[in-house]
Amino acid sequence: MQSNLEKVTKAAEIMGLQINVSKTKSMFGRENIEQRLQLGQSEVENVQEFVYLRSLITWDNDCSQEIKSRIGKANGAMTKLRKTWNRKEISLETKLKLLCVFSVLLYACETWTIKRRDKEAIKAFEMRCYRVGQKNWTILKSV
Length: 143
What we know:
This protein is mainly alpha-helical and about 140 residues long. The protein has 6 helices and 6 strands, in the order H-E-E-E-E-E-E-H-H-H-H-H. About 50% of the residues lie in helices and about 10% in strands.
């Protein structure tokens, strides 16, 4: 691993780039490893988890924490849309297009390893969204 890091460092230097040691992490699955990676005179921090492109990466590939976080973010997006859902002058068709909260929920989902309880949590959130919509659809149909 150290030799690969040195090759990347040399290639970056040829291109006029420098690797930021404070932003560089290694992940070997445990904190206390015998040999640490060196980048120049600095030691690369070894971690058990880190955030990459707004997704949590863990050494054991347990995505439960990331899924809970995504559900929370999607819930927040749904809450922000509540006033829009309650407006009668916006058509049902337009409101259905506003279910963009699913894209918030499912961001980077192709990398997830899903457990049964994660799947159930995702389905529960989806049903909650549809119930909010259902309440408003019933109100719209009665008008």
